[in-house]
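<goal> How does this chain fold?
<sample>
Here is the protein in question

***
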Amino acid sequence: AGNQFALGNFEKAAKADSAAVALVPNFSMAYANKGWANLHLNKYAQAVDDFTQAMKGFQNAPPQQLAAIYRNSGDAYRMMEKHTEAIADYTSALQYYPDFADCYWGLATSYGMTGQYLLAENNFARSAKLLSGNDQQLSRLYVDWGGMEDVRRNYVKKLIDDSLAVVYDGKNADAIGALAHAYGLYGRMQQSVDRFYELARFY
């Protein structure tokens, strides 16, 4: 299954891991890998079931390994817009690995989607601090942060976040598009147009 996953053959990887757990029902690693494949296949409910099975056998695993399974389960719940469950899994992951930047990012997104904006901001900030030095990831994070500020109509903060996203990665098309939109919302129409023209070169 590992080779199929590396090749991007997620369907084949999931089938191989399904065969493995059919032979060895308590094969936790196979459940974890199957969940990861189903997550990539957008089969989120199945992924949650797989990660739940995997957790049962990983209780004595290294903390970061168990944290990763909780993070993955949180991602699956978040994609199903089950944010209460996602928040619970991300929080569990952080109990095992307190410096897990992705979990703070996931928490920020779920808190933002449920209108808990102060908690969202705090967790975006924690994730950004832990991602220091990883400019591409920081760019993506600030796009998400700016997206939340757009929803709450805090356009000044959105402009700041989207500007930072472009500073961290000037080749991030999502960041450039978000900044173009932010300039438009802020009334800076010429700068908005300029950014949209810049965005066009990516397509």
